[in-house]
Structure formats: C-alpha cells, structure tokens
Amino acid sequence: MEKLNTKPVFSVSDFIAVVNQTLEYAYQSVEVEGEVASFKVSHDKFVFFDIKDGNSSIGCFMTVWQLRVPIQDGMKVIVSAVPKLTQWGKFSLTVKSVRPSGEGALKKSFELLKSKLDGEGLFAIERKRQLPTIPKHIAVISSIQAAGYADFIKILNDRWGGISIDVANVQVQGTSAPDQIINAINYFNQQENLPEVIVIIRGGGSADDLAVFNDEPLVRAIASSRIPTLTGIGHETDESLADLVVDIRAVTPSNAAQILVPDKAEIIRAAYSRVNSLLPRISQLINQQKQSIDSLLIKALDSINTAVNDQIQKISNLRGVLAQLDPSVVLARGYALIRGNISIGSVIEVETNKVIINAEVKNVVSK
Amino acid sequence: MSSANKSISDKTIELTKMVEWFDSDDFTLEAALDKFKQAEKLATDIEKDLLSLKNEIQIVKQKFDNEG
Q1: Which pLDDT does position A279 carry in this prediction?
Q2: Are both A154 and A96 inside the same structural domain?
Q3: Which residue, of A64, A65, A196, A353, has the greatest Cβ tally within 10 A?
Q4: Any CB–CB contact under 8 A between B3 and chain A?
C-alpha cells in the first residue's frame, strides 16, 4: 500500500512567506554587529550594504531617512534589524537603525557628519543668537531621573528665582532618545507662550551614550528651533554636534545654569558693597570740606595778621616821624629855643637843652 | 522679566543712580545722609526680593516618544 505524503507542499511564494513568518516569530528584532562593506545609496532613497565579520556576510537594506548617522565601508556598526527572505530567495536584514560601534567608528561617523553640516553652515558663528539676560520662562529637555538634570535644577534654584520652568521628560540615551528630544523641541516651538530659551541637559556618559547628540535629525531640529538653544551635555571634554549647533554651549549641566541666570548672592553682595563704598566717600568729602574751611580760616587769619602788621608798621613810622619833630630832641642836638619880642632892648628867653636864659636884645640884623 | 524681577531691576537701576549721585556735581553734604539711608534701604529690599523668589517647575504631560 502506498504511504500517504503528509508533508505540505508550498508554492515558492507561500514558502517564502512561511519562512518570513517563522523568522519574524523567532527574531522580531535583532542587533548584529559587523563591518560595513559595499555601502551604496540608490536613487537617494534606498541604502544597501553588507555587514560582515571574518567569516560571514549578510546583505542589509534600509531607507535613507532611517540612516541618521553617516556610515561608510570599513566602519564597525551595530544594526537593529528584522531578518527577511526576499522574494528572490535572498536572505537579508531589513535595517531599522544603524549606529557606529566602538570608539573609532563613532569618531569617524562624528567627523563625517560634522564636516557635512559644517559645509551647510549649521555651525556658523553668524547663526548664533544671544540668550535673554534674565529669562522668566524656560524649557528644559532632559530626563528628570538623571543626575545632570538634578545638578542643573539645584544650581538654577541656588542662583535665581521667579522662573517658570517647563520640563520635557525624555530619554537621553538609547535609540529612541533622539526622536524624543526632537519631538520635545518641536513641542516647545509650537507653544503659544514660547519659552525664551530651550535648555538640553544630560550628565556625563560613555561616548556611545552621548552619541545620541550626534544624530543628524536632532542636530537639524536644534538648528531650526526658533527658540534660542543652550546645551549642557556631559563633561567639559565631551563635544557633540548638538553642542556645535546650539546658540550657546555650556560645558556641563551646572555650567548651563550658571550661563542662564546671574547669581543672586553676588548681586546682593554687590548691592551692599556699593552702599558701603559710599561711607568712605562721604567721610572723604567731609574731610575735604573741613580742609577747605581750615585753609580759608588760615588764609583769613593771615590776612588779618598782615593788615595788623601793616598798621603797626605805619604807626611805628609815624612814631619815628613824631620823634624827629620833638623840640627836646632838637635842643639835645645843641639848638636853642628863643621866646619873646625880638627888638633892641627887649628881654627874650633862650632855652637850651640844659638851661633857660633871660637875655637882652642888643642888635637885630636882617639876613 | 516678571514683575518681581522687573522690580529688582528697577531697584538696581535706582541704586546705581543713587551711587552715581555721590560722584556728581549735584552732591551736597546736606543731602548725602538721606541719600545714603535710601541706598541702604534699597540694598536691603533687593536682598529681600531676591531671596523670596522661587522657581516653578512644571513637568510637561505630553509624551515625546513617536507613539505618544
């Protein structure tokens, strides 16, 4: 008796569909790390490349808009993908996202995108806008669980008050982080009551963690924000493309708060210092006036003394003249004073320095 | 600037003008003591205003993932 064949017979299309269902069931999403080879973009829409290691290679497919960071042949990447058998029976990975892997690839990708965006003028100094001197309404994009966010808020509260702070709680690492940050930027830019500045905050992390801020669509979203932007991402030595495109870059979250608002303690100190500086000023002016008055008094006294001395001198001179006119002084020099009628026979009185003589006039001759 | 901040700003400007008066030709010793007392009060007011201001934080309810 002929044995019945119970194995299903598929059409080719059905078989490929069943394989894809099985693959989808087994590997909803896989991450595969390898080196990029044969990278090419077709019609500015589709991206094809192989990902390989020492022994094996798999073809990859994705759309241009899914490619958020530049990649090139030889670069080590991690692809997040769905395995698929194509209708031509070729096994490939349909890539949802790709990110550089390892320091070298991250750096290479960073430099490629930096060069591209710099060429478009996105980092130009002329594009940079000033932040408000003291904002009253700001938007913060960060993870509220992150230490960097806590640092920012603490320093902000320590330094200034009266600010309305709208916080968009987003992921600041991982594959969904760039889109969340972009959505938050767009959200704030669409508000009727626009914040005066958008602050993007994230604490320190590995180069891989911070690669979120090298995402091309995110960099472009920051560049197109109509609200001025400020970043406080990572540490002083970390530099992301988001840092290059924002209006003002702070080196840390704490530094972002320092840039954003003045320090009220310093303002209070300065106010008191200015007031206290007035007291020596008043004392100085009082002393100046006192010196001026003293000087005037001395001058007045000098004038009085001079006038008095002048008078004394004049009196002294007059006394000298008077002394010369004293008759006894003339008599002392040997002269005599004659009193009486000068006529022959009359008796006259002759007074010398020492005696008085009565004498008779014997003769009178005109000179 | 909020009204409170504006007030601080106004007071700071007023204090600046008052300090400048001491170096101006308008300065007189007779008026200096009153001006000094006013400046001292302004500094105290600025301190009080600054210390009383608090920030208000609102977490936006909107979800920012692409599904939100």
Answers
A1: 86
A2: no
A3: A196
A4: no
In a domain, A220, yes or no: yes
Q: Given an 8 Å threshold on Cβ–Cβ distance, is B58 in contact with A157?
A: no
Q: Categorize the per-residue pLDDT at B4 as very low, low, confident or very high, splitting at 50, 70 and 90.
A: very low
User: What Cα–Cα distance (Å) separates residue A50 from each residue in A63, A105, A121?
Assistant: 15, 16, 32
Q: Among A144, A268, A275, whose Cβ lies nearest the Cβ of B50?
A: A268
ipTM of the complex: 0.82
**Which regions of chain A are under pLDDT 50?**
none
pTM equals 0.71
Q: Is residue B58 part of a domain?
A: no
Min Cα distance A105 → chain B (Å) is 27
Alpha helices (H) along chain B: 3-21, 29-52
Distance CA A328, CA A356 (A): 13
pLDDT in tens, B31-52: 888 999 999 999 999 999 999 9
Q: Is B13 within the bounds of a domain? A: yes
A4 touches chain B (CB under 8 A): no
